[in-house]
């Protein structure tokens, strides 16, 4: 069972969601920057200057979704086994369902699709370049 009170549970869940979303958002930005640098070198050189802005955007993005349950859009609570805390997945309220749907779309589906698209474009560019070199 969860050994601490609800405040510690909320803090624990908030930190887990914040750092998890920050990690996935960082990987998404990294894949997009790599894609620009490899596939579009003329535009890729500008991203070095904006690294701090990109990091700030990652943290704001993660904080937005992690603080939403604190503003009562979704909620944090004990996991089903009660040993840890996370987002309350089994709530039946409309707001909680919309929060979980927004998390799925904006914090899982879109980042994963962007990562797959970025690395696919990189592989395609490398394959086309390799064929061009072999023909010469």
UniProtKB/TrEMBL annotation:
Question: What's in the GO CC field?
Answer: membrane
Q: Where is the G-protein coupled receptors family 1 profile domain?
A: 1-136
Among the Pfam families in the record, one is 7tm_1
List residues traversing the bilayer.
12-39, 51-71, 98-127
The membrane topology noted for this protein in its Swiss-Prot or TrEMBL record is:
Multi-pass membrane protein
Matches recorded under InterPro entries: GPCR_opsins, GPCR_Rhodpsn, GPCR_Rhodpsn_7TM
What's the protein called, per UniProt? OPN4A protein
Q: Which organism is it from?
A: Onychorhynchus coronatus
* GN (gene name): Opn4a_1
């Amino acid at each position: 069972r969860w050994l601490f009170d609800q405040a510690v549970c909320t803090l624990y869940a908030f930190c887990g969601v914040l750092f998890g979303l920050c990690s996935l958002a960082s990987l998404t930005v990294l894949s997009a920057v790599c894609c620009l640098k490899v596939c579009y070198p003329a535009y890729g050189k500008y991203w070095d200057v904006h690294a701090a802005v990109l990091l700030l955007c990652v943290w704001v993005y993660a904080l937005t979704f992690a603080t939403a349950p604190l503003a009562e859009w979704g909620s944090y609570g004990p996991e089903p086994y009660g040993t840890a805390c996370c987002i309350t997945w089994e709530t039946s309220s409309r707001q909680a369902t919309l929060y979980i749907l927004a998390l799925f779309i904006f914090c899982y589906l879109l980042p994963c699709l962007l990562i797959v698209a970025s690395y696919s474009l990189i592989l395609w560019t490398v394959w086309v370049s390799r064929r061009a070199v072999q023909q010469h």
